[in-house]
Amino acid sequence: MPKYYEDKEEDTRACAGIREDFKACLLEHDCVMKEGKLPSECLKEGHCKALQTSFFECKRSMLDTRSRFRGRKGY
């Protein structure tokens, strides 16, 4: 479930909800918060893998030529 804030302007880009959840997962993970590593380093270690995969699938669906006829997947 995406997090939405009242005082923040709405992101209308594709996959915005997953992008926000993925970003929050990385920035709030113990790997970044306690160990002081960069989010990119935590990604290489495999943290937030499910959200990373979902974000990739959402972005890939935008490039899929079949989506012209079927429409983008509902993310």
TrEMBL record:
Pfam families linked: Pet191_N
Key words, A-Z: Disulfide bond
InterPro entries: Cyt_c_oxidase_assmbl_Pet191
GO biological process, one term: mitochondrial respiratory chain complex IV assembly
Family label: Belongs to the PET191 family.
Stated role: Involved in an early step of the mitochondrial complex IV assembly process.
Name listed for the protein in its UniProt record: Cytochrome c oxidase assembly factor 5
